């Protein structure tokens, strides 16, 4: 396209010519219309093509970060392959989103030019405007809102993938960035008080999977949601590890497992509690661990439900919002037959029992746990979860008695029901009673966290001067449609309003009530139609300069290098932030270029972390942008138990005093908000509507890849029984609806689902549906007790009942 033939041409001068050509093209297109021309035309062979390769770190929000090798021919990305620069070759990975990037980068549905809304919000009528007008309109509107309604009236939020390197704008003007995220922390809320605030992320490596005798994949489908991390699971399978998947759906992961437990949606805690019951009734628990590492021997006052503690204050539980510092717990010493402090070295604490002290009836936590378990039965667990009693007992036996065991939790699935904290609290009990924690091949949590499985780098973080910081967030974004708030103007990078909240009709009604809303996105995402101003960002593969993001992933530091100029009239996020900052006279606080940012992040990093020695900007460039961190060996992870748990007594604390008043001192079972068998709503809306990740997309991202749309548009998986009862066959358009909204999708009748349960990949942009979109029916119920939890109420996307009919 550029006509450049000289391969020694510098990258910068190369960009200058091609950038001008691309900008010229962009002017031809009417706003919103396809801007095709040469940019989107198929590549042509050139007599003397200029070809080069470049590398970059791909997406993070699939929790991966593969390094990709891109072949660029005549300034067009033509081939994407796994990196050949990874020192550890097992990390030369790619998935179909990486391979499909060519179709994604050059997609018709890229946002191409800045646009201004002309129709009503939601109608999607836009006209093209200049960058100058767009930037000024946004800056003026945000400032105007602040002048009229105060600083806190502006909301600026970046979607995860867009916000990884920097997020300056919200800080520059003290904007509200949306408070509690409400995502992926449902079980975490229940695990935290027991095991510490970040305990939902495993503190062991998934490379230890092969050391486990048993792995339970609890509502996790790594074969799609952690595709390139499938290797440790498959290594374990080969090594003979017994893999059990608990999922309402027969997933790819279930297919590779030894056993699949088709749980009824929203009832996982019943399985775990059935296991607890079997473990306690059969004496399969680990007394030594319970006494040394858990609160099982701590004393509780039966009458008040309060823990019996010393007067001397120790510390508040860091995972309870507004918690007061508490005293140290007492245990019952069987030698002196009296209460002593839990860490008394000479005492021999009782695990069970009841004693009267100063008129108080004191019992141990384990006694309370046993009494609670006496109130439940295995047949209840089976009836509630839909899993046979004997299957639950066998799983408990295998988990407790057969060597090291891992529970690898998914942050989708069971996490996205209002009762997820009860599930988290229940699994905390399971590890506490069995000691399956903090040793090789044993553990609990999400195992595919970025950086936790391979050494990660320490990089300098670009910090703004102190006076620039986020404003307060008195109301979380998911609460904004329901709770009074002072937001009048919004700017989002990505489709937060349609993705990071359930019940889209409520959210979008609220968005429509704003004075102003602008969006910066790469594609025509679902939220775009509601914006007043739309700015086109470029992909990771495009940049105004020779380098782009600096990231660390898979034990390597990666600097994106030598890609192509921004397509159409798009710009990089950094330049967009700078243009806006300039309107407020603050652009000098931001890095001028990605190069400056990368140099800053690397400069002096070796002083923070000796492993960064020699990993400099120039060295990275000389190495194609990729350098490995020094090997740390298999056991680089800290011993899970050496320093104890991040709880006031540094042991696993099982009894949640702060929830005792609400009946949840122990994880007393609770139905989900909507998805439960005896819900009267089931008469009208009899089907459970579950969602999950798709290997084709990262959330809604990659929807614009036409190859994927052809193969995988919005499709509703349903069981043959449910389809037949409604006269539906594969390929039919079906309407999915409940009292919150509706949408139309294509039916995909198959045996992966038990009758009564639907599944759909979350989600795809509104423009690919014939009518409505998935988020119209999802649930936005907020759990009241969630407000006192560390991560706040979580969005219960899966806690949904619907009905389906032929459209
Ligand atoms: N390809 C791809 N990978 C991704 C992402 C992506 O968008 N695309 N997103 C990333 C993000 S942000 C996250 S949070 C993780 C999530 O990772 P996962 O938790 O593995 O993802 P999901 O597919 O949302 O949910 C897992 C499974 O939960 C099942 N499920 C639904 N309801 C229930 C239930 O009540 N009980 C049980 N046991 N299972 C249930 C679904 O059928 C699904 O198979 O994935 C990450 N990885
Ligand atoms: N119904 C339903 N909804 C769900 C879920 C569910 O299970 N069901 N799961 C949820 C989960 S687990 C999560 S974590 C959230 C994820 O929600 P997010 O954190 O918002 O998701 P991302 O995929 O990181 O961001 C997607 C948006 O950012 C844009 N984007 C991507 N890269 C860039 C970039 O470099 N620059 C700019 N400016 N924009 C970019 C994309 O075009 C897209 O609009 O979604 C949740 N939504
Ligand atoms: Mo997530």
TrEMBL record:
Q: What is this protein called?
A: Tat (Twin-arginine translocation) pathway signal sequence
Which family is annotated?
Answer: Belongs to the prokaryotic molybdopterin-containing oxidoreductase family.
Extent of the signal sequence: 1-33
Per UniProt, the keywords (alphabetical) are: Iron, Iron-sulfur, Metal-binding, Oxidoreductase, Signal
Give the molecular function GO annotations: iron-sulfur cluster binding; metal ion binding; molybdopterin cofactor binding; oxidoreductase activity
- The Molybdopterin dinucleotide-binding domain covers 687-766
Q: Which organism is it from?
A: Adlercreutzia caecimuris B7
Provide the Molybdopterin oxidoreductase domain boundaries.
110-581
């Amino acid at each position: 396209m550029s006509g450049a033939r000289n391969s020694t041409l510098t990258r910068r001068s190369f960009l200058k010519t091609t950038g001008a050509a691309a900008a010229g093209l962009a002017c031809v297109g009417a706003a919103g219309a396809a801007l095709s021309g040469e940019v989107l035309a198929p590549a042509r062979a050139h007599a003397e093509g200029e070809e080069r390769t470049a590398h970059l770190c791909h997406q993070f929000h699939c929790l991966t970060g593969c390094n990709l090798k891109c072949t660029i021919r005549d300034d067009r990305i033509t081939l994407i392959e796994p990196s050949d620069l990874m020192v550890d070759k097992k990390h030369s990975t790619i998935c179909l989103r990486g391979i499909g990037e060519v179709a994604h980068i050059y997609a018709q549905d890229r946002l191409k030019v800045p646009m201004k809304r002309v129709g009503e919000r939601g109608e999607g009528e836009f006209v093209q405007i200049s960058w100058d007008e767009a930037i000024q309109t946004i800056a003026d509107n945000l400032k105007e809102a602040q002048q009229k309604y105060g600083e806190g009236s502006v909301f600026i939020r970046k979607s995860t993938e867009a916000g990884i390197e920097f997020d300056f704008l919200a800080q520059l003007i003290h904007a509200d960035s949306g408070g509690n995220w409400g995502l992926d922390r449902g079980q975490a809320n229940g695990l935290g008080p027991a095991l510490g605030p970040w305990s939902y992320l495993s503190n062991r490596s998934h490379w230890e999977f092969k050391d486990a005798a048993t792995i339970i994949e609890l509502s996790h489908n790594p074969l799609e949601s952690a595709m390139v991390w499938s290797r440790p699971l498959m290594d374990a399978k080969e090594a003979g590890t017994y893999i059990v998947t608990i999922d309402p759906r027969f997933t790819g992961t279930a297919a590779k497992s030894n056993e699949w437990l088709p749980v009824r949606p929203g009832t996982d805690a019943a399985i775990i509690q059935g296991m607890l019951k079997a473990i306690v009734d059969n004496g399969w628990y680990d007394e030594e661990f319970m006494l040394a590492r858990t609160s099982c021997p701590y004393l509780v006052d039966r009458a008040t439900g309060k823990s019996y503690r010393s007067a001397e204050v120790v510390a508040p539980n860091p995972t309870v919002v507004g918690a007061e510092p508490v005293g140290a717990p007492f245990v019952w010493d069987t030698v002196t037959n009296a209460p002593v402090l839990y860490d008394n070295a000479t005492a021999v604490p009782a695990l069970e029992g009841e004693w009267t002290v100063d008129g108080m009836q004191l019992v141990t936590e384990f006694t309370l746990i046993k009494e609670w378990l006496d109130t439940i039965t295995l047949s209840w667990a089976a009836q509630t979860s839909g899993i046979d009693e004997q299957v639950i007992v066998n799983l408990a036996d295998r988990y407790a008695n057969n060597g090291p065991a891992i529970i690898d939790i998914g942050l989708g699935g069971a996490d996205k029901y209002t009762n997820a904290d009860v599930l988290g609290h229940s699994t905390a009990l399971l590890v506490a009673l069995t000691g399956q924690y903090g040793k090789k091949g044993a553990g609990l949590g999400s195992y595919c966290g970025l950086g936790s499985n391979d050494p990660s780098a320490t990089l300098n973080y670009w910090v703004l001067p102190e006076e620039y910081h986020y404003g307060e967030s008195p109301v979380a974004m998911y609460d904004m449609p329901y709770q009074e708030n002072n937001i009048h103007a919004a700017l989002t990078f990505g489709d937060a309003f349609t993705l990071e909240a359930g019940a889209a009709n409520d959210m979008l009604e609220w968005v429509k009530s704003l004075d102003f809303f602008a969006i910066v996105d790469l594609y025509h995402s679902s939220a775009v139609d509601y914006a007043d101003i739309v700015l086109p960002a470029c992909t990771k593969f495009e940049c105004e300069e020779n380098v782009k993001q600096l990231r660390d992933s898979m034990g390597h530091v990666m600097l994106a290098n030598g890609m192509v100029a921004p397509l159409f009239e798009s710009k990089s996020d950094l330049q967009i932030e700078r243009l806006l900052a300039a309107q407020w006279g603050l652009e000098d606080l931001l890095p001028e270029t990605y190069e400056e940012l990368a140099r800053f992040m690397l400069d002096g990093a070796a002083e923070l972390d000796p492993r960064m020695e020699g990993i400099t900007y120039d060295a990275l460039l000389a190495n194609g942008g990729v350098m490995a961190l020094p090997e740390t060996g298999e056991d680089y992870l800290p011993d899970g138990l050496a320093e104890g748990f991040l709880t006031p007594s540094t042991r696993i604390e099982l009894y949640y005093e702060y929830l005792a008043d609400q009946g949840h001192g122990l994880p007393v079972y609770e139905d989900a908000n909507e998805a439960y068998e005896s819900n009267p709503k089931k008469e009208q809306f009899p089907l459970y509507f579950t969602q999950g990740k798709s290997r084709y997309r990262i959330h809604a991202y990659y929807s614009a890849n036409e190859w994927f749309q052809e193969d995988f548009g919005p499709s509703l998986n349903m069981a043959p029984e449910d389809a037949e009862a409604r006269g539906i066959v594969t390929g039919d358009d079906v309407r999915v609806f409940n009292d919150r909204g509706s949408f139309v999708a294509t039916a995909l009748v198959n045996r992966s689902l038990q009758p009564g349960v639907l599944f759909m990949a979350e989600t795809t942009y509104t423009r690919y549906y014939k009518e409505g979109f998935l988020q119209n029916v999802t649930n936005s119920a907020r759990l009241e007790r969630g407000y006192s939890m560390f991560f706040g109420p979580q969005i219960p996307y899966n806690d949904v009942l619907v009905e389906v009919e032929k459209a």
